[in-house]
Amino acid sequence: MRLGGYPAPWCELLGLRVEELAPLADGVTVLLEDRGETAGGGVACDGVPAAGRLWQDVIDLRGAVPLLTFGQGLLAGVAAATEHEYGHGRAFYLGTLPDRATLGSLVRRVCGHAGLTLRDDLPGGVEAIRRGEYLFLISHVDQPVEVDIGARCLDRLSSAVVGPRAVLAPRDVLVLGPGPADRGGAVPEVPGQLSQR
Fold first, then answer.
1. How many beta carbons lie within 10 A of that of residue 76, not counting itself?
2. How far apart are the first and last CA of the chain?
3. pTM value?
4. What are phi and psi of 107, to 5 degrees?
5. Between the CA of residue 73 and those of 41, 49, 77, 128, 145, what are the distances in Å?
6. Which of the residues 17, 24, 78, 159 has an alpha carbon 20 to 30 A from that of 191?
7. For residues 187 and 51, which has the higher predicted lDDT (pLDDT)?
């Protein structure tokens, strides 16, 4: 056990201390309010208010700024998601599990600060990761999925030329990498290394 409160030893990095954890009953949600810095964070989508579920942390801010606050109940006005500048970077903390749209907005913000672009053009369950000069496309689903890779490319696993659209079989992988131009050696540009799952 570590002393210094939760989440020791990261309280200084996160600029906060969690005083208490308040679990929410199954199916119960709590309204979240945007603090003006999170694009789309306060209103999820189609006018549906942002909501948190599963738990609420009672957060004592010690340098962090709130991105979202709880909008109702005993914790109304208390930080629900935070950002803290630390060293040459930033640390983010969630004091609840936001709804999918609000979480997506927060993840895009974090990715932007890290210089990554969240891929939202991939089919659900497909992961795209760049490692050096290779692009890995990984299917995590149990049915074939079509992916637009933008150009003819050489699949380094099968030595087949694929694209500009390719079908990934269930749980399949493509490894696109450089190769002879006549074999489809172009590798599509993929910003960042994140994907939609």
1. 12
2. 34
3. 0.72
4. -65, -40
5. 19, 15, 9, 41, 44
6. 159
7. 51
